[in-house]
User: What shape does this take?
Amino acid sequence: MANAQLASFKIPVVDNEPMRAYAMESGDRKNLQAAVAKMESQLPFDIPCIIDGQEVRTGNTLPQVLPHDHKRNLANAHSATPELLAKAIESSVKAQKAWEDMPWADKAAIFLKAADLIAGKYRFELMAATMLGQGKNAWQAEIDAAAEMADFFRFGVKYVEELFQIQPPRNTPGTWNRTEYRPLEGFVLAVTPFNFTAIGGNLVFAPAIMGNVCIWKPSPAAVYANFLTHKIMLEAGLPPSVIQFTPGNPPEIVKQCIDHRDFAGLHFTGSTHIFKKLWKDIAQNLDIYKGYPRIVGETGGKNFHLYHPSADVKSGVMQAIRAGFEYQGQKCSALSRCYVPKSKWTEFERILKEEVKKITVGPPTEWQHFVGPVIGRPAFEKITGMITKGKEAGGEIITGGTWDDSKGFYVQPTVILTKDPKSVTMTEEIFGPVITVYVYDDAEEGAWEKTCQLIDTTTEYALTGAVFSADRTELIKASNYLRNSAGNFYLNDKCTGAVVGQQPFGGARASGTNDKSGSMSIFYRFASARSIKENFGSVEDFAYPSNSV
Ligand SMILES: NC(=O)c1ccc[n+]([C@@H]2O[C@H](COP(=O)([O-])OP(=O)(O)OC[C@H]3O[C@@H](n4cnc5c(N)ncnc54)[C@H](O)[C@@H]3O)[C@@H](O)[C@H]2O)c1
Ligand SMILES: N[C@@H](CCC=O)C(=O)O
Assistant: This one.
C-alpha cells in the first residue's frame, strides 16, 4: 500500500464518557430495560469464532450461563479447533504488514469510531450483555461496558498520538534523528478475564492500535459481551484479520498460541497463578521464537483500607461497603482487608452492620439490588469455601456469611472480624463479597507505623489500597510506609473505581507487571522502537583529525 501522509493530523480532544444515571422513569432506564428484555427473549445466542471477519461454527460449544439463573445459558460459544486456530494465526500474521502500513490517522479513526458506537448505537446492547452474562447491575454495567470501554479507546488513541511525538531531543548538525514505534514482529495473544467487558476490549485494542495483530481468547464467562465488542470493531472498519476472535478451551487455545514461532506477546488479565504458569510456559519455549515475547499481565489483589482514628467513620464505612461489595467484590481492586482503630471500632461496627442490612441481593434485572450473583459455580464454591475457612480460623462473622445457589449464585455481603491479621481471609484473594476486618490497638506506641508494616508484609499482592485520615501528617507517613504495597493508592477514597485518563491502573509484586492500563506506558510495551539516523552530508575522508601526524 502506498501511503501519502500530507499533514500531521491532530486527533479530536477526548474526555471521559459522561456517566448516565438510569434514574427511575428516565429514558435511559427505559431503553436499557428494553434492551435487556429483548436479549432475554432471544437467548441462548449462538456465538461463532470470527476468523478473517467470517463467522465459523465448529459445532463444539462451551456455555455461558446466566449467573442469576444458572439453568439458562446466555450463549453457547463455538470452540476454535486446532486447525481453525492455526489458520487464524497464519492469516493474522499475513495481515500484519498491511495493518502496520496503514496511516496512523486511519487506525486512530477506526477506534475513535468504535468508541462512538460503544457509547452510542450499541450502548444498551453491550450493557445488557454485561448485566445478563456477567451479573452486573445497571450502574456497574454503565461504568464498565459503556464508559470505561469508550474511555480506553479514546484515551488510548490520544496516548499513542503523544507517544509518537516522543522523539530524540538532539540532532548534531547535518543529521536528523527519529524514533519509529514499530509493532512487534508476530502476533499478540490477548487472554481476557470475565469481570470487565472493557478489559476484554482493551487487551486487544492496546496492541492493535500500535499496529499489532491479535488472537483474542475471551473468557468463557464473558464471551457474549466480548463477541459484541469484536463485531463493533469490525463495523468501525477494523480490517478483518487484525483481531481474530477464538473462543474455546482456555489451556488448549493458549498453549497452541504460545507454542507458535510467531508468538510475539502476551496481554493477560486474570488470576495470578495462571499468569505465572503462562510466563513459565513462554520461558520454556524461548528457543522457538523469533524474538523475546513481551509479557504484560495484570492479576490478583488483596486490597486494603486503613483507617486512622481521625478519619470520618461514617464516610469510611460507606467507602468500605462500596469497595468491598460493589459487583459482588469481583473487581481486582475490591476491598478485602480492613484495618480499623480500636478506639473507633464500636462506632464503625454499628454503622457497618446497619448499612449492610440495607443491601438487597438479587438478579441484575431487578433494579433495586446493590449486590447481584457471583459469576459461576467455581467462584461460588471458592468464595463460600473461603468464608468457611475464615470461620474455622477463628473469624467471627459479623454480617452475611450465608449463601444460596438454588437459582443464581448468591453470596450475602459478608464481613469477618479476625484477631489474626495473617489469617487465611486476610492473605488469600477471595474475589467475592467478603471483607475481613482486623482491629488494631491505636493506644499502643507506634501503632500506625506497625499497622502499615503489617499491611505491607501480609500478602504477596500489591494492587490497590486506601488510607483514611483527617491528619495530613499521618497520611504522609502511611503513603511513605506503603509505597510498594499498592500500585493504585487512594487517600480518603475507596480502593476501587480507577478511571481511564485519571488513575492509570495496575499493581506490582504478584499483582502484575504494572504496565498501567489507561496510560501511555502500556502502549510502549507493544512497540519495538526503531532508531533512524539520517545524514544530510557526505564524507570525504575516512580518517579523523586525531589520526593526523
Ligand atoms: N489487575 C487487574 O487489572 C485485573 C483486572 C481484572 C481481573 N483481575 C484478576 O482476574 C481474576 C478474575 O478473572 P478471571 O476469573 O477471568 O481469571 P482467570 O485467571 O480464571 O481467567 C483469565 C483468563 O485466563 C484464561 N485461563 C484460565 N485458565 C487458563 C489456563 N489454565 N491456561 C490458559 N488460560 C487460562 C481464562 O479463560 C480467561 O480468559 C482475579 O484474580 C482478578 O484479581 C485483575
Ligand atoms: N477499573 C477497575 C479495576 C478493574 C479490575 O477488575 C477499578 O479500579 O475498579
